Amino acid sequence: MPALEFQTEPARYRHWRVEYDGDVAYLIMDVDPAGGLGDYELKLNSYDLGVDIELNDAVQRLRFEHPEVRCVVIKSGKDNVFCAGANIRYLGKATHGDKVNFCKFTNETRLGIEDASENSKQIYICAINGNAAGGGYELALAADHIMLVDDRRSAVSLPETPLLAVLPGTGGLTRVTDKRKVRRDRADVFCSTEEGIRGAKAVDWRLVDEVVPNSKWKDAVAARAHEIAGRSDRPKDAKGIALTPLARKIEADRVTYSHVEVEIDRARGLATVTVRGPSRSTPASIEAAHALGDKFWPLAVARELEDAILHLRVNEAAIGVVLLRTDGDAKAVLDHDDFLGKANGDWLMREIRHYLKRVLKRVDVTAKSFIALIEPGSCFAGTLAELAFAADRSLMLIGTREGDNRKPAALTLGQANFGWYPMGNGLTRLETRFLGEPKALDALKGKIGEPIEAEDAAKLGLVTQAYEDFDWDDELRVMLEERTSFSPDAMTGMEANLRFAGPETMETKIFGRLTAWQNWIFQRPNAIGEQGALKLYGSGVSPTFNRERI
Amino acid sequence: MPALEFQTEPARYRHWRVEYDGDVAYLIMDVDPAGGLGDYELKLNSYDLGVDIELNDAVQRLRFEHPEVRCVVIKSGKDNVFCAGANIRYLGKATHGDKVNFCKFTNETRLGIEDASENSKQIYICAINGNAAGGGYELALAADHIMLVDDRRSAVSLPETPLLAVLPGTGGLTRVTDKRKVRRDRADVFCSTEEGIRGAKAVDWRLVDEVVPNSKWKDAVAARAHEIAGRSDRPKDAKGIALTPLARKIEADRVTYSHVEVEIDRARGLATVTVRGPSRSTPASIEAAHALGDKFWPLAVARELEDAILHLRVNEAAIGVVLLRTDGDAKAVLDHDDFLGKANGDWLMREIRHYLKRVLKRVDVTAKSFIALIEPGSCFAGTLAELAFAADRSLMLIGTREGDNRKPAALTLGQANFGWYPMGNGLTRLETRFLGEPKALDALKGKIGEPIEAEDAAKLGLVTQAYEDFDWDDELRVMLEERTSFSPDAMTGMEANLRFAGPETMETKIFGRLTAWQNWIFQRPNAIGEQGALKLYGSGVSPTFNRERI
Question: Mean pLDDT, chain B, as a whole number?
Answer without folding.
Answer: 96
